[in-house]
Design a protein that fits this description.
491 residues; alpha/beta; Rossmann fold; 2 domains; 9-stranded mixed beta sheet; 6-stranded parallel beta sheet; 20 strands
Length: 491
C-alpha cells in the first residue's frame, strides 16, 4: 500500500506529546512490512533545515482556503532518521514561521484554525504535485482530521483520489479543534454540513468531530481508551459521535522503543542489569538516593514518578495523599513540571520530609532513565491515559507500576494476585486520595512481607513486551479495513 501519514508533529523534529512518538516510529515498521509510507508535517522554524538535511522538493503549491482564497507554500523533504522513510515539510512562513507549535505562554495562536486546515488541505494538494497517489490517508488528532473531511467531500469525485481511503487516530479526545461557526467558509465544504451529526458542536465548528464522521476507520491508542471515549466521563462531549461510529472504532496500543529503553544496555544507568541479573538493580537505587540526597538504604521501598504535573496525571490526588503516604516507611522521588502550584507545593513537601521525599522541577531525559531503573515502584495515578508509555518502561526495568485502572494503564498492567504471586503491578479504580494511599500501602506491605512475590512480579514485568512490530501489523489490518469500506478488497 501507499500510505501518507499526516500530523502536526513528529520526533525528532517537533514534539509536545505521544503523537510525535507514534508518527516518528510507526512509519518505519510499516516500511518493514513492505509498504510505501511517507509522512507530511509543517516546517516550524524550530526545525533546522541544515541539521536535518532538508532539501527543496517542489513548489509553489497552491492551497485553496475557501473565503480566504488560494494560498501558496513550498515543500521540503528529508528522511526519517534511521530509516529510508521520506518525510515532507510544508513551508509557509505566515503559518509555521514560529518556534512554538500551538501556543505561546500557554495561549493558543489565534489562527490555529487556519494553520491546520491549511495543513490538511495542503497534504492532499501535495499528493498531486508529487504524483504520490495514496491508498491511505492516515490523519492524526484534530490538527489533520480535516484531511478526512476534504477527502470525503471536495475530493470525493476527484479521480486522483478515487481509490484513496482514510484512517483517523485519536491520541487524546480532550483536544478537538473547536472554533467559530464562520470557519465553514474557510473549509468551503458547504454549510449543509454544519449540523449536529457532522461538523457542528454547540454552534461551533469541531474539526475532530468532523473527522470522526468522515474517516472510514477511526482508532485510538488502547482498547480501554476506545471504550472510555464512548462515555460521558471521558468523551469530552464527543461520546455520541464515537458511539455513532463505534463499529468502525478500534484500539491499538502504541509500541515501545526497546532499543532505547533497555536496562541491560542503558548508558544512563549506574549499573546495567536484566531479568537474569537483577541484583545489579540495587546500584541504580543507590544512585537515585545519592542524586536526590536521600539516605542510602536498600531495605526501604523507593517510589518514583516522572510526569507532567497536571490534573490529567492525577497530581492533585497525589498532593492530597502525600502526607499520609510519607507516614509510611518509604522514600519517594519526583521529576516533572506543570501547573505552577505543584512546583511550590511539592517543593515544600521536600523541605518537610528531607529524608523521605525529593523533587526535581523540569525534565531531564537521563534522570528519567535513572528513576525508571532505580525505583522499586513507579506511580501513575492518571485521571485518564489513552495509552501511556512510562508504565511500559517501568515493566521493562522491573520497577513495578502502581496505576489507576484507566485506558492504556489498565490494558498493560496486570494486577497483583497474592495467592500465586501473579501479576506485574498494582492497580486501583477510584479516583481519590484514599484509593491511591491504600494501593501504595499495599505495595509497601508486599515489599516488606512478600519478598518472594516481589521477585516473581519483577520477572513477570521484565518479560512483558509491547512491540511496534505487533502494533504495525494491527495498523496494516486497519488500512485493509479502510480500503474495504470503499470497495477495494485485498489481494
Amino acid at each position: 500500500m501507499k500510505i501518507l501519514i499526516t500530523a502536526s508533529e513528529c520526533v525528532p523534529y517537533a514534539k509536545t506529546g505521544g503523537l510525535a512518538d507514534v508518527v516518528g516510529i510507526l512509519p518505519k515498521f510499516l516500511k518493514k512490512l513492505g509498504h510505501d509510507v511517507r509522512v507530511i508535517m509543517p516546517r516550524y522554524y524550530g526545525i533546522n533545515k541544515e541539521k536535518y538535511a532538508l532539501n527543496w522538493k517542489a513548489g509553489p503549491l497552491g492551497v485553496p482556503m475557501g473565503i480566504i482564497g488560494e494560498q501558496w507554500c513550498e515543500i521540503y523533504d528529508g528522511i526519517l532518521p534511521d530509516s529510508d522513510v521520506p518525510i515532507y515539510f510544508i513551508e509557509h512562513e505566515m503559518y509555521y514561521g514560529r518556534a512554538e507549535l500551538y501556543n505561546v505562554n500557554g495561549k493558543g495562536f489565534m489562527d490555529n484554525d487556519n494553520r491546520f486546515i491549511f495543513l490538511s488541505r495542503a497534504s492532499l494538494q501535495a499528493c498531486k504535485l508529487l504524483d504520490f497517489q495514496p491508498d491511505i490517508i492516515h490523519a492524526n488528532d484534530w490538527h489533520t482530521a480535516a484531511s478526512c473531511i476534504f477527502l470525503n467531500s471536495i475530493y470525493k469525485n476527484d479521480p486522483f483520489f478515487a481509490k484513496t481511503s482514510s484512517v483517523l487516530t485519536i491520541h487524546n479526545i480532550q483536544y478537538q479543534g473547536q472554533f467559530y461557526a464562520g470557519l465553514m467558509d474557510v473549509l468551503d465544504v458547504g454549510w449543509d454540513r454544519f449540523h449536529y451529526m457532522e461538523l457542528e458542536h454547540h454552534d461551533t465548528v469541531n474539526l475532530l468531530k468532523g473527522g470522526i464522521f468522515h474517516a472510514k476507520i477511526i482508532n485510538t491508542v488502547s482498547e480501554g481508551y476506545k471504550n472510555e471515549m464512548s462515555t460521558a466521563e471521558y468523551g469530552y462531549g464527543l461520546e455520541d459521535a464515537i458511539k455513532y461510529r463505534f463499529a468502525d472504532v478500534y484500539g491499538i496500543l502504541n509500541g515501545m522503543d526497546y532499543d532505547e529503553w533497555n536496562p541491560s544496555e542503558d548508558q544512563f544507568l549506574a549499573a546495567n542489569y536484566d531479568v537474569e541479573n537483577i541484583n545489579n538493580k540495587v546500584f541504580c537505587k543507590t544512585d537515585i538516593q545519592k542524586i536526590f540526597n536521600l539516605p542510602i538504604r536498600d531495605d526501604v521501598p523507593l517510589f518514583g514518578i516522572v510526569s507532567r504535573l497536571v490534573e490529567q496525571k492525577g497530581i492533585d490526588i497525589l498532593a492530597e495523599a502525600i502526607h499520609k503516604i510519607l507516614a509510611l516507611d518509604i522514600q519517594f522521588v519526583m521529576l516533572g513540571e506543570g501547573e505552577p502550584w505543584t512546583h511550590f507545593y511539592f517543593g515544600d513537601i521536600a523541605l518537610m520530609y528531607p529524608d523521605k521525599f525529593a523533587v526535581r522541577i523540569g525534565y531531564d531525559h537521563a534522570l528519567s532513565h535513572k528513576i525508571e531503573a532505580g525505583c522499586d515502584f513507579f506511580v501513575m495515578p492518571s485521571r485518564f491515559e489513552p495509552c501511556g508509555l512510562n508504565q511500559m518502561y517501568s515493566l521493562r526495568y522491573g520497577t513495578l507500576p502502581i496505576v489507576r485502572a484507566t485506558g492504556g494503564l489498565n490494558d498493560t498492567v496486570e494486577n497483583y494476585i497474592e495467592g500465586g504471586c501473579e501479576g506485574n503491578g498494582f492497580k486501583f479504580l477510584a479516583l481519590d486520595a484514599g484509593a491511591l494511599f491504600d494501593t501504595i500501602g499495599w505495595a509497601t506491605y508486599t515489599f516488606y512481607n512478600r519478598k518472594d512475590c516481589i521477585k516473581k512480579m519483577i520477572e513477570n514485568a521484565m518479560k512483558k513486551r509491547f512491540t511496534w512490530d505487533e502494533s504495525a501489523k494491527k495498523y496494516e489490518e486497519l488500512y485493509y479495513k479502510a480500503l474495504e469500506k470503499i470497495g477495494i478488497l485485498r489481494n
